[in-house]
Specification:
Elements lengths: L3 E8 L2 E8 L14 E2 L34 E2 L8 E2 L32 E3 L6 E3 L2 E2 L8 E2 L5 E7 L2 E8 L3 E7 L5 E5 L13 E6 L6 E8 L8 E9 L2 E3 L8 E6 L1 H4 L19 H9 L2 E6 L27 H4 L35 E5 L2 H5 L13 H29 L6 E5 L11 H18 L5 E4 L20 H19 L2
Parallel strand pairs: 3-5, 4-14, 18-19, 18-20, 20-21, 21-22
Antiparallel strand pairs: 1-2, 6-16, 7-10, 8-9, 9-16, 10-15, 10-17, 11-14, 11-16, 12-13, 12-15
Helix pairs in contact: 2-7, 5-6
Length: 503
């Protein structure tokens, strides 16, 4: 089965579900300004983990065939250092608040003493939803915006990866700018091009201690990735900084996943969860983050009722974020080597443990649900006005009940004395017939009010109506925000969270 990503596009108020084969961006803005170009090196210390993937997926077009092995590929290299060939936007900077350290944190004891760092060294920190137990030597993730941090002493650092297909990452050294790392490959024609690859992220650094941050920008539909290890130049791993005392978790759809945040349309080069509102909110608040987001998905019904994955019929209904929120991984169609296990959402391995309790949980889900009662839906096109309104009311009642049940589950994992919940309404502006987005937001507002009246004094509704009104706020479809639009959302959400949390 091909590895493709469900995308949401809306033009002129009409809903359109498309399946776009994942590809990569072969264009490049060049190295970081001030950097010089240098050829990569071969590191003999890594060997292939072996094993073919269960399903190699679909790389789309534009991928590079590298034949596997140990070649160092293009990555992020700070200004003033040498750079291997790479592609994608370079040097992206955003506002980032000081990170308050977690005071009860206990520093780990590092295992590695040489230049080769195993992926499961206790001093490597993994944030978001990772599988750290199935194959501890190769931590695996598939949700967008998963990331890791590692401190090291030395003059450079590389990372070793397997990917299911072409996936975009960003790296940062010492809290500096994010530089794009395009892990392009062709799994269907050359599986070795996707495995066991070493990406040089920095070289020529000043001697001393540095911190690497490595982020995934691509949505989960582009497949999973394994981290196989690291290589430090002229040094070794160091004890990490304490994680932030603040932790934020967001769940949502294509807007939260950053679809089209870096350009018009849904494609590999334009999707970027790091540009999107959730990560930007976390950065503004000095918080660590987790993002669980899937394009086209809803809480009760997905976009145009589209959904469902092979082997996941045990739920008896179309798979929505109500289900996916419980899973360790995005429901991927292909698995990176060397795991060779088919995805099974019902397996114990795929049930998320919910042990990392966030201070703030923000649920921005419902837009795709509300599209199903918009003016262009089967409900919206009903000719009898009274019947049309009755159908919309029944739909919203079912949506509200499903969302309420979801929040019951959340509270079973995240009690109110530990987690403040924010229910985030849709940013879309109303259609002229059904006013479905106002109806949806009012339904969410009512749900929150009812739960608060029942005793949950740590749940709040975020109404984003009127935040985005200009064409420049959206990436050409009046649905998915541009980077500037996401900044508007992040500015508002961070202010609301700061007020309610006293941060």
């Amino acid at each position: 089965m091909k590895n493709f990503k469900l995308s949401l596009l809306l033009a002129g108020g009409a809903a359109l579900c498309v399946l776009a084969a994942c590809g990569d961006d072969s264009s490049s803005t060049g190295p970081v300004p001030g950097a010089s170009s240098a050829s990569g090196y071969v590191d003999p210390g890594f060997s292939s983990a072996g094993g073919d993937p269960y399903d190699p997926g679909d790389p789309g077009t534009g991928g590079s065939s590298q034949g596997g092995g140990n070649s160092v590929e293009g990555g992020s290299v700070p200004a003033g250092t040498s750079s291997a060939s790479g592609g994608g936007p370079q040097g992206v900077s955003y506002e980032q608040a000081d990170i308050p350290p977690k005071t009860d944190w206990v520093a780990p004891t590092c295992v590695a003493t040489g230049s080769e760092i195993p992926a499961n060294d206790p001093c490597v920190q993994y944030f978001g939803r990772w599988d750290l137990t199935t194959a501890p030597e190769a931590p695996t993730a598939a949700w967008s915006a998963t990331y890791l941090k590692m401190k090291f002493t030395g003059t450079g650092v590389s990372i070793k990866l397997n990917t299911s297909s072409s996936i975009a990452f960003y790296s940062s050294i010492d809290g500096g700018t994010w530089t794009r790392v395009d892990a392009t490959c062709e799994p269907e024609t050359n599986i070795e091009s996707c495995r066991n690859r070493n990406f040089r992220l920095a070289t020529g650094l000043a001697s001393g201690t540095h911190e690497l941050a490595f982020y995934r920008a691509s949505e989960g539909g582009y497949g999973m990735h394994d981290v196989l290890g690291y290589v430090v130049e002229n040094g070794t791993i160091a004890v990490p900084n304490a994680p932030s005392a603040r932790k934020i978790e967001c769940m949502g759809n294509s807007i939260t996943a950053g679809l089209g945040a870096d350009g018009v349309g849904s494609e590999y080069a334009h999707d970027n969860t790091l540009t999107a509102w959730c990560v930007q909110t976390a950065l503004k608040l000095g918080a660590d983050w987790t993002v669980v987001a899937h394009s086209g998905q809803g809480m009760y019904k997905n976009l145009d009722q589209f959904g469902g994955y092979a082997g996941q019929t045990e739920y008896g209904h179309i798979i929505t974020m109500y289900d996916e929120y419980r899973w360790t991984h995005f429901p991927a169609w292909s698995i990176v080597p060397p795991h060779d296990w088919s995805y099974n959402a019902a397996s114990a391995r795929e049930q998320w443990h919910f042990q990392d309790i966030p201070d703030v949980a923000i649920f921005a889900i419902g837009t795709n649900d509300f599209i199903n009662i918009s003016q262009n839906s089967s409900v919206g096109m009903m000719t009898d006005a009274a019947a049309r309104q009755q159908a919309a009311n029944e739909y919203l009642a079912a949506f509200k009940a499903k969302y309420d049940d979801f929040l019951n589950f959340v509270r079973s994992k995240y009690p109110k004395n530990r987690t403040t919940v924010f229910v985030h309404g849709t940013i879309l502006n109303d259609d002229q017939v059904m006013h479905s987005y106002s109806l949806g937001n009012n339904t969410l507002r009512q749900l929150v009010a009812e739960r608060a009246a029942a005793g949950d004094d740590r749940i709040f509704f975020i109404d984003p109506a009127g935040w985005l009104t200009q064409a420049s706020d959206f990436s050409g479809d009046w649905t998915h925000p541009t980077a500037a639009g996401h900044q508007i959302i992040a500015n508002n959400v961070s202010a609301i969270v700061r007020e309610k949390m006293g941060w």
